[in-house]
Amino acid sequence: MNFAMSLDYQSCIDCKACEVACKEENGVQLGADKQRIWVSQVETSIFGQPFISLHPSQCNHCLDAPCVDVCPTGASYFALGGLVMTDKDTCILCKGCMEACPYDARFVDDTHVAVDKCSFCYETRLVHGEMTTACQATCPTKVRLLGDIDDEESDLVQLLKKRKFYVLKEEEKTVPKLFYLLPEHDDYFAMNSVSPDTNIYTWDEYKPIIEAAKAKRKPQWKTVIL
Amino acid sequence: MENRNTLEVNKLTYKEFFLDKVMLISYVFLALFFFGVVEMVYERYFLLSATAADAGLFPGSRAVAEAMKEAVFGNGGEVKREAPWSLYIVNYIYMVYVGSGIIFIVAIGELLENKEIKNMAAAFLSLGLAMVIAGLVTILVDLNVLNLLSMLLSPQFSSGMWLMLPLYTVYVPLVILEIYLVLSHKDAWIKKIAYAIIILSLLVEVIEFYVQAKLFDMNSARHLWTTYPLLPLYFVVSSFTSSLAIMSLYVYLNKGNFMLRYIIERATLYFVLALGIYEAVSYLFIDKKWAEIILFGDFKYWFYLYVFLAVLLPLALLFKHYMNIYFKITAAFSIILGTFLGKIVFVYGGNAYPMSDRFGVGFEKYFEYDEVKNVIFFMPPFSEVAIVIGSVGIVLIIFRAVDLLLLPKKLVEKGV
Amino acid sequence: MKVELSRRKFLQGSVALSIFGASAVSTVPTLLAKEKKQHLSKQTIATLCEMCVNRCAAFATVDNGIVKKLDPNPLFPKSKNMLCARGDAGIHALYDPDRLKYPMIRIGEKGSGEFKRVTWDEAYEAILNGTDKFKGFKQILHEEKNNRSTIAYCAGEGMGEHTYKDFMGGLFGSTNFVNHASICLQTTISGYALTIGGYGKADLENARYVIMAGANRAEAILTPDTMDMFKRTRGRGLKLIVLDPRFTNTAQHADKWLGIKVGTDLAFVLALTHVVIHEVLYNKEFAAKNINGFEKYKEHILSHNYTPAWASKITGIDANDIFTIARDFMANAPRAIYYQGRRTAWSKQDFQLRRAQAIFTALGGGIDIKGGIIFGKKLELDAHIVEVPLYSGNKPRIDKNEASYVGPNGTWIGFRNLIAEKKTPYPVRGMFVYKHNPMQSVPNITKTRKMFENLELVVTIDTMPSDTVMMSDVILPECNYLEREDPVKSFAGIEPAIVLRNKVIEPMYETRAVFDILKGLAKKVSEPLFDITLEYDADLRAEVAERGREDVYEEDMFNLNLAYEHTQEEINKERVVETYGEEAYHTLKEKGVFYPHMDTYFKKINMNEYQYYPEDKKYYSRPSKEKTEALDSCVDEKAMASLKKNLSTGSGKVECCLPNLALKGVDTMPQWREELYFEVQKGKFKFVTGRHAQQTQNATSNNIMLLDVMRENYLWINKEQAELKGISHGDWVEVKSSIGAVRIKAYPTIKIIKDVVFYVHGFGSESTGLTFGYRNGASDNMIIEDHVETVFGSAAMHETVVEVTKV
Predict the structure, then answer these.
(1) Distance between CA atoms of residues B152 and B146, nearest Å
(2) Distances in whole angstroms, Cα of residue A179 to Cα of each of A182, B141, C231, C607
(3) Which of B47, B57, B75 is the best mutation test for C, with the most CBs of C within 10 A?
(4) Which pLDDT score, from 0 to 100, does residue A225 have?
(5) What does the pLDDT average to over B334-360?
(6) What is the model's pLDDT at position C10?
(7) How far off is chain B from A145, nearest CA to CA, in Å?
(8) pLDDT tens digits for B77-117?
(9) Which fold has domain A3-220?
(10) Residues of B in Cβ contact (< 8 Å) with C705
(11) For A52-93, what is each residue's pLDDT tens digit?
(12) Looking at domain C674-806, which CATH architecture does it have?
């Protein structure tokens, strides 16, 4: 098992269903800053015309996650299934993981006085054997697809074999597992929604990167602490 | 007083001890500190904060309603997700580095058998220790102490943050031992041990500067910290500058002997120069995104004020060997304040460039009606400011207590 | 302080509990967490969302009697396995701390918000007999000689609306009903119905070219349109043209966004029509067979010279764009739709705009065909008929002369103004309000307040202390949609289905379903009202003399209790079983959704998508003789489109010209009326209002979860113009019209054209009962002037001019 997610972000309409579903599903703290997942937007003007790209986002569950390395207590750890998890009972709130994360994916859950973040709905869904997250299930345009990238037959790998994709801040060498699907049929949108310097991958190109990172980190994968 | 192996405690009345002028000042700071702590504890552990599930668990509850309202319409909790490290960390690194800087310098002085420094070693060491403790207390306040035990239960040997635990568990007793030995090292064999201890403490200190740098350097996405050239060196230079300033201040205030003044003054000047050169060079290497914010962007006034206070003004005041003591005191204060400002620029600056340009097409905003943030900066809450300012009280009270009780007064005053 | 700490601990404990519970049933062995067994009491119940009008199917997870989560129910073809932010936040409607919990009666001045908690019986008693603060049914009906229409009633959209109308209009007998239609899509519905025989449904799953004017499917979510189209925009099969003064989230997805001037859409459509007619691009076969009065319309368009050049001056849209769009549209026809749109009338020409849109779509043949506007099929459901008594002396509705055509849903502004200005033909002295908040939803709040002040008995049935509830005399707390079973409902469409809202948990506090509220009221008032009727109806007295009181009371349905002999559950069961059998009913109870062959048709395609009906079983068009014959041989879509239709209009064809309209002085064909349009004066702005995907009108203004993702509304103002006024982001500004002023934060943006300002509807409640919604943001109806379009008396909401000043 190696959980990952693709995001067909060109279909996003910023309805925020995913954000609300996530909060309800996981009992996340209220507050605009307290999001396990979020939809961000970049607003620009291209020749006087407004241009907006919407980016549904959450924790990348990086295979080579810097947030795990900095944690002094193991509260931020790799779990089986390649998940990056947090354990609120051992978190001492040094906030090092928040500094280490290049994606601002973590926040402080004031109700537990601990760091919180997306867990791919592990506690509420994955542990039951469900293979969708709350954000994926609720989405009107079905932007997200969660899957097991160890399984070549999974819907996710099949999709990634068809569509080109990229990951965020690849230069940070975190080997993220949110795959942003490059819009195929709208070059204008595709060009303006991501930097031209970004590497665009096919599955065959990215798979070795995943394999290498997994080999490096797999020994650290632990049983989930609940 | 000859051949003493044990510590001698000065005889003081309670009144002399507790109503001492410095002690009185420390109470004011401590009051501020405790006020901040109470405020912080209330906000962190007692203030209601609501989750999405609370409404269903406590239907119709007014308390939950108020908590939900605060969560959504309030100022958004203690820690800001875009800038998790704040004034606590600034104070922590300042206090700890500057404190251990003093200890380091004293240790070097001892090694070099510098008589002037040796004479004041105990005072300096206790001052350094007091600062280290104040720094550690600040960081303890910042952490969620309820879970602190997990540092012991599940140690993470490769985490810079965790390494601080064994580091300070060794370091603080070592320094206390050092003080003890300084105050009582007349026996030959104790002298030998003292050397060993000093060398050991120097070693630990080198490790400390390395670990502290690692702490920042591990945050690979915050390029200010990762591209700062020779980060441990920066910590050494900037803290030693400040350490020397504090030491010189102490010497002035206690009318220390001329030679000692001169040595410290010159050392300060060199370190100020070094710091100036360092900052001038370092920004050639620092990631442009961060450098722009700090040198030309929102942080520029802070940065230039830092450079002015920590480098330019002291340079002007110390360059020539003026006899005016006020010049020197001003220079020392200027350095102390300036380097603190430098740490603010360092910590806050590290978070200043938003992480939100994840797609390389511009900074993202999370809500349509948000304003796009080009620079991240949050004012620390009042409780945090109070704790940081109040932590000076910890330094004062520890130092003064040691000073009053243990330090052989005559020694200092006579400048023997 | 102690208490609060223990609460926090308790919270942590309860969160932990649910997690342990989850791990016990893990089926992913490799992921098995530490085994911690915990008794599970979780239940999943099929329900139906009521956070907006769409009615998406949902599953509610109930744990120890607490609704923990709402998830999409993938079975419903209309909602296609999704739940939007509002649907997900339904839990917070249920557990809103400010919910109306008990019946209450007013003890302070009207509108003061001073109420007293009473029992249900006391509340009913107050409605019947009044209190020292207000009059009841008895006094009022005596004074009005049993003119039941003196008690008006209104309702917002909802599944209980019929239940309520059956009581108020049928059993009680008032004619004065007004609902959201005239502040909603009255003109659109009527325009399309009169022109092509129905509002229909845009087949966005198959359309290739869509012009969406004013409609904002990304933010005003409509199922299944929203899901269908945004999977196909951006070069994926659906070319989208968006006309809107604002660059909406829908416009983001558009191939072209045209920032049209407010109120000029009709000119744009007429110009498109002109191009198509002038260049003979329309589907000639379709026109010949299916359009009535086409020659006349052709002549009309050409003679008025509605050229793109002409329209360009009015709309601000480049003439070349109009040419291109008209040509592209027809090239893609019949899979080309000028999207109908929903919500309120914008301008005074709105009805004709909708007619013109419908005719333009028809010119390409995109009516009643795959990829066009289709009518689909509705699965039959046995009707539930409530027999009602006959009252003599009931007067007709007060607002019947307030517009050319006033239907049974009335005209809110006309109706309101008559009462507010005391100009009603006879006294209207009371009003029942159900799930409706006219205080916030009807333009010109000051006048609506006046109306309520003029009414002597105001009874509100609602879940939340809305601004309207604050104006009432008696408050009857309704339970939330998750606490009741509602009438079973059949949804027409390409993929029709029947859905049932099952009760998820028992009603909290002392709330009741509207069905039970009315049942209780009927019990209380039935006999006394019959007595009053007898007193003022001589014929009825004669009947009683002849047949005996008991017989007349029972047989002539004056016994209102007869309508409530069966429970809502029993009625639902009967209606379903009658047509589809027991099995179908069980499916509805268990799965919430039913349609014939669901078990074989419904298939999972992948983790995200499902098949509801096989392609060949979908109801794309209505059967007609010619079509059935042609099905085998005909493959060309344009030819398919041109086959003889069987539309529900008078002639069975698309109606270009409606001569009857002339009788009421309404244009028989869409025509641009210069006198109904105005350019905004320099320095001022036209105000437009609109929707947002995280709020449903003003019904969700206190939903903390939705406020969490959108805290308040902001004033959109063109960035350049804002800069000239020195207004920057977050500045407080005053927006002032002739009827009122509000203060709101500014959002200067390039996403809105010049001379127009906007803020979203649903904020700025004035009810002190709303902890989160009270004075949060600004209310649009504080400043929207009460203009109406004269055909149906619909509120024309984009005719208001405002000034914006920094404060």
Answers:
(1) 13
(2) 9, 39, 18, 17
(3) B57
(4) 78
(5) 94
(6) 37
(7) 20
(8) 889 999 999 999 999 999 999 999 999 888 888 888 778 78
(9) Alpha-Beta Plaits (3.30.70)
(10) 52
(11) 999 999 999 999 999 999 999 999 999 999 999 999 999 999
(12) Beta Barrel (2.40)
Cα four-point dihedral sign C242, C244, C246, C248: negative
CB C204 within 8 A of CB C211: no
Q: What is the DSSP string of C102-137?
A: S-EEE-SSTTS--EEE--HHHHHHHHHH--SSS--H
C551-568 per-position pLDDT tens digit: 999 999 999 999 999 999
Topology of domain C201-374+626-656, CATH: Dimethylsulfoxide Reductase; domain 2 (3.40.228)
C-beta of residue C214 within 8 angstroms of C-beta of residue C346: yes
- Chain B contact for A72 (CB, 8 A cutoff): yes
Is B52 in Cβ contact with A27 (below 8 Å)? yes
Domain boundaries, chain C: 1-34, 107-184+383-478+513-564, 201-374+626-656, 674-806
- Residue A174 distance to chain B (closest CA, Å): 9
Q: Do A72 and B50 touch (CB under 8 A)?
A: no
Which of B46, B51, B372 best tests the C interface by mutation, with the highest count of C CBs <10 A? B46
Give backbone dihedrals phi and psi of C749, rounded to 5 degrees, phi first: -150, 155
Contact: A21, C88; criterion CB under 8 Å? yes
B144, A92: Cβ pair inside 8 Å?
Answer: yes
CATH topology classification for C107-184+383-478+513-564:
Rossmann fold (3.40.50)
| CA atoms within a 13 Å half-sphere pointing along the CA-CB vector of B381 | 18
- Shortest distance, CA B159 to any CA of chain A (angstroms): 5
Using CA coordinates, name the residue in chain C closest to A80.
Answer: C31
CB-CB neighbors (< 8 A) of C88 in chain A: 17, 20-21, 24, 138
Taking the model in full, what pTM does it have?
Answer: 0.93
| pLDDT-flagged residues of chain C (< 50) | 1-39
Q: Which residue of C has its CA nearest to A182?
A: C234
* Closest by Cα among C439, C455, C512, C452 to C764: C439
| Nearest CB neighbour to B72, from listed A30, A43, A180 | A30
Q: Taking the CB of residue B317, how many other CB atoms lie within 10 A of it?
A: 21
- Do the chains contact at A16 and C91, CB–CB below 8 Å? no
Q: Of C30, C230, C252, which is closest to A1 when you measure between CB atoms?
A: C30
**What is the domain partition of chain A in residue ranges?**
3-220
How is residue C541 written in tokens?
């007295």
Give A-chain residues touching C69 at CB under 8 angstroms. 24-25, 124, 134
Task: Please state the domain extents for chain B.
Answer: 219-378
Query: What would the pLDDT profile of A95-135 be if each residue is shown by its tens digit?
Result: 999 999 999 999 999 988 999 999 999 999 998 888 999 99
